[in-house]
Design a protein that fits this description.
Number of strands: 8
Strand order of the largest sheet: 3-4-5-6
Shape: rod-shaped
Radius of gyration: 52 Å
Structural class: alpha+beta
Strand content: 5-15%
């Protein structure tokens, strides 16, 4: 018997070709006594770590053995996978990840799905509607609503130039609202002033002071207080030392939108200005300021 040097199959001494691996056998026969030598050579190579990078060492009487096929176990290449193919796959994966990262950074810049940008677009449409409708253009609520929406625009937005133009158009409506509210305030003043005079005169009567109170001035914004005994000391008493704190006569006349109060004895006058209020005050601000209409509409 002899052994096939390619697959270690035992074969008859007369065999010319291995019936297992179909390789031609060397003309020089090999007896079974040589099997232990062959087996030792194979085991020595297979005991090394990983597949060999060089052919198996030649054994006397045997041709060199070919390298084993690539293994599929972890840490080695799969069948049919060369180092070039592996590198190609790695480059492809890196390219896909890079593209996804680029898309992630581009998405916030476009802002197409950003609620803020949606509000700006809605504001531009609303301004177009308000500025072309005379009724809406003089409505404080509609003007303020449109202004608040486009105030969210940022210089980097593609809508910024359109928003600045729209703000200029909306400013015309703000000025109309301002003028209308001033007209309304004049009407309010005309109603409040007579009542203010009555309240002031009643307060002085309670203090036991007889004075004559009337309204004068080109705009009817002046109060004249007449008494034959008028003097600086009496003025101090009538005005609680010129105080405009809550509950004083000066505060009552101030709320009635008078601009000046004049004390006189018929021969001499003492004039004192009151705060100039363009609009009915609300706390420390006016109605227009509170509504967001107190300043011109300008985008920075």
């Amino acid at each position: 018997m002899k052994i096939c040097p390619f697959c270690t199959q035992e074969l008859p001494d007369t065999a010319m070709m291995c019936k297992r691996c179909k390789n031609a056998l060397p003309t020089r026969g090999v007896s079974t006594s040589s099997k232990s030598t062959k087996t030792q050579a194979v085991e020595k190579v297979e005991a090394s770590s990983g597949p060999p990078s060089e052919p198996y060492p030649e054994v006397a009487g045997f041709p060199p053995l070919p390298l084993p096929p690539a293994q599929s176990r972890a840490g080695t290449l799969r069948p049919g996978m060369s180092k070039g193919k592996v590198a190609s796959v790695v480059v492809s994966i890196a390219g896909v990840l890079g593209f996804l990262g680029w898309m992630a950074t581009r998405a916030p810049e476009t802002g197409r799905d950003d609620p803020r940008v949606a509000q700006v677009k809605a504001g531009l449409a609303r301004i177009q509607e308000v500025t072309t409708n005379p009724t809406l253009c003089t409505s404080p609520v509609d003007v303020v609503e449109a202004w608040q929406r486009i105030q969210q625009v940022k210089p980097a937005d593609s809508e910024y130039a359109a928003a600045r133009t729209a703000a200029t158009q909306l400013e015309g409506c703000r000025q109309k609202v301002f003028a209308q509210m001033k007209t309304d305030s004049v009407s309010l003043r005309e109603r409040e002033r007579p009542r203010g005079v009555e309240q002031a005169q009643a307060r002085w009567a309670e203090m036991g002071i007889n004075v004559s109170v009337s309204v004068s001035g080109a705009k009817q914004d002046e109060v004249r207080v007449l008494s034959p005994n008028m003097s600086p000391a009496l003025v101090e008493r009538l005005t609680d030392h010129l105080s405009v704190r809550t509950g004083t006569v000066m505060e009552i006349l101030d709320k009635a939108f008078f601009q000046t109060i004049v004390f006189t004895n018929g021969k001499r006058e003492w004039r004192y200005p009151l705060p100039n209020r363009e609009i009915t005050p609300v706390g420390d601000t006016t109605i227009l300021d509170r509504m967001g209409l107190g300043k011109p509409f300008v985008l920075n």
